[in-house]
Structure formats: structure tokens, C-alpha cells
Amino acid sequence: MQYIFDMHFLCSCIPGLHVNGVLYLVLPPFILMFVVNILEPFQLRKVFYSMHCLTCEGYTRSFGGCVATSIFKYVSLAAIWIASVLFDGDWYFCLMTNLNLNQTGIPCKANFTYEEQRIQHKYMKDSNDYALYVIFGFVFVWSIYEMRRAFCRSRHQCCPPYYSVVYEDLLAEEVSSLMNQKLKNIAAQKAKIICKLYLQNIRRHELMEQNEEDVDISDTWKIISASDFYLMENEKCESAV
What is the chain's percent helix, strand, coil content, to nearest 5? Predict the structure, then answer.
């Protein structure tokens, strides 16, 4: 992350807007967002809890909620990154000179003339002004967000206690686990009914005493080896009921 913030933008000094200039603004916030997600997985529940207060629509694990969380996080990181780039000024200086054919190439010069220094200072000043606008906009939006959370807490409409939200999540998991366990027991009992006759035939053949008549179980092996064995036997059991 330190390398990302220490990156120095190199101007292409070629007329026009270029893809690398756009990626320089857009791509680093994506990288930072993935790094944050990797380094702070233990805060996943709190992220959803914050989104609950932001939307006032309840705790959600829907795809839309995940997308909204990612967008909110990306916009926050993008605002910080873009502000830092604009405060540095090199990116904006390169952009404006590349868009002006009479000024293209100035950032690549080792020594500036007096007029070129004035052009540089003007663009640097404009870049710093835009950085302040970005910071102000981000702080304004964040203040509204925090006021919204405070309002939700005071009215007790949107933000229930944190562990009540955690309890709802745990309850859903336990209900699912219990249902799977009980259904598995029922399926096991049904399987015993379906396989009982065929297992008896195999047992009689394999454990047959010397004085007992040999049992032909070739048909049994064919039936239980069929790919639709379960379906066919299940239909027989249901029709017999």
C-alpha cells in the first residue's frame, strides 16, 4: 500500500487523453479495496451492520447489499486517492498540457522558461483547488452519513443493537443446520426401506451356509447398480402407500 501512495506519475507528453492517465486514477482504489477486504475479514459483520444503518432497510445479505457496500467502500477510497493525486499536481499538469497542443511536452522538460513556470504554477494551483473540492465533497457526504446513523440510533428505527443482528444471523444458520440434520435422518430411514430387500438377498448369498440353496443375485447387482435405482425404488414405495 505504501508503494501505491508513493507512486510518481510520469507524463507521456503526447497530445490527447490516454488510458494510462485514467487508470492511474481508477485502478489504485480498486487495489486498495481488495487489500482492505483481505486484511480486515473480521470486520465483515460490522460492515453489514453499517450498511443496515445507511439504508434503513434492515440487515441484508442480498447481492444488492454486497454491491452497495463495495461501491460505498470504493467511492471512499477513490475520494482519498484522487485528492492525494490532485494535491501532488503532476497528473493534472500533464493532463492539461496534453490537451493543449501549444503546451504539450512542457512536463517532460528538464528546465522551464519563465512562461512555462507560470503555466505550471497555474495548473498546480488549479489542481490543489480541485483536491480541496473533492475533500470537501467527501467530508460533506460522510457527515450526512454519520448524521443518518445518529438519527437511526436515536429513533431506534434502523439500527437495532449489534448483537441482536448477530443473533438473527446465527439463528438462520442454526435453523438451516437443524433442518439438514433432521432431513438427513429421514432420508437415512427411507434409504433403509428402499435397500432392505436387496441387502437381504446379498447377505443371504454372501453368508450362505453349506446346506442352503444358492441364491442367484445377478439381477440384484444389476438393479442396485442402475443409475436410476433410487428413482425407480422411490416410485415403487410411493405407489405402494
Answer: 75, 0, 25
Domain end: 112, 130, 160, which one? 160
pLDDT score, position 228: 82
The C-alpha cell at 233 is 425404488
Cell 461501491: give the residue.
Answer: 71
C-alpha closest to that of 128 among 77, 91, 75: 91
Q: CB–CB of 139/87 below 8 Å? A: no
Residue 156 pLDDT > 80: no
Domain identity same for 67 and 155: yes
**Where is average pLDDT lowest: 4-8, 15-19, 186-190, 213-217?**
4-8
Does residue 53 sit in the same domain as residue 103? yes
Tell me 62's DSSP state: S
C-alpha cell at 223: 438393479
- Map 12-24 to HEC letters: CCCCCCCHHHHHH
Residue 9: what pLDDT? 77
